[in-house]
Amino acid sequence: MANFSKSGVPRFAAEVYQNAYLPEGGREVNAIVTVTATGGGTSGGLPLFAAGKDPAGTGTGCGTGTGSGTGARAGTGSGTGAARGHGGAPHAAVVIMVDCSGSMDYPPTKMRNARDATAAAIDTVRDGVAFAVVAGTHQAAEVYPGGGRLATAGPTTRAQAKEALRKLSAGGGTAIGTWLRLADRLLADADVAVRHGILLTDGRNEHESPQGLRATLDACAGRFTCDARGVGTDWEVKEVTGIASALLGTADIVADPAGLAADFTRMMEAAMGKEVADVTLRLWTPQGAQVAFVKQVAPAVEDLTGRRTESGPRTGDYPTGSWGDESRDYHVCVRVRAAEVGQEMLAARVSLVLPAPDGGTRPLAQGLVRAIWTDDMSASTSINPHVAHYTGQAELAQVIQQGLDARKSGDADGATAKLGRAVQLASASGNEDTAKLLAKVVDVVNAATGTVRLKAKVTEADEMTLETRSTKTVRVKK
Questions:
Q1: The pLDDT of residue 328 is above 90
Q2: Is residue 2 within 8 Å of residue 124, measured between CB atoms?
Q3: Rg (CA), the chain
């Protein structure tokens, strides 16, 4: 079983990449904020200040860059924490939801692969983590441990859970919302900070209305994170990606059920690496400014604009979920009041904050976004490389979706144009993984110009893989 123990608790740092110069009368300010958490592993998912040390003594070093330089950054102070929570309680909890609907019996090996994958995930659960297994059909049922509770991972409970998997059999319909609500109830009773779900489905959500699933996702959002996987090719991509998006998790396809065990192991390893929950990106803007959008742009595109909650005068919070040792990039676009040449202003203050036990928040890191008006056209028309790169990656995700939608609707010309643009963007940005997926849907004549031809025959697995992974991005090359 993998050992995720590291020294210290996560340190957060924020770096701002932008061109701060605007022409006279210019209003739109764009910046990429890179947030990096490092050195975690022993806080056990507790808020940093509950894991043994109060990070009030954080040191901040501020500096700004008008080109591709870094902005303000801050890191948490050093600290240590036990691998378990207060009073020896588990520090994190995970619920595995396994589709057991009738379609999981076709072919019969699919259900066996799902049981094997769940067993592999259970083997990866770290000692001391609370966990449960749920069987999902048109209703949800507890498989292990039962009784509306979670088990604490250890050699005995892992063995018991894997034995209980033998009872899993296929039969019934699919109502994913019931699975998520049961997971929510189980996780809500756990006195832990990091709550996570893993969901596997092989079919469409046919026994629940889209509105019902949406209401469940709205109710569960912010309560736990969830990774979602579709196995085979009979499920709906937008349903699975929608679940992952709403619950700040990942989504992917496992076209061949034989690959489930490896995928579940990777998912659970990633979940066990999460150390801090409920980290929020807080954005302050000056009087008269408007937030155009806030998007996560790496490792995948996720528009957070509509998830803003007001947290103070001219200040809004955007959820980012749970963090381990990792780095993510965010694109912030703000429209400020126009000013005259020579004037300078703070266009935005970007902070990473964590809930405090007293109901307040504690800062983890900070970056500053500036605006400087100039009559130097070469300065004001230059686009920061980070901003240009991620603007292209966001467009790449968009045109892939538009191209696939056009292809499904029979609009060959529209599909060719959009997917051709996608090939061009993937090639220019060095997104080789997406380029390979596109090459299974179109014949590439000239990648640089985006000249392509639609393939006459495309397997459903190849099309669904491209759609599911269309939001994955590549980082800026250093």
A1: yes
A2: yes
A3: 23
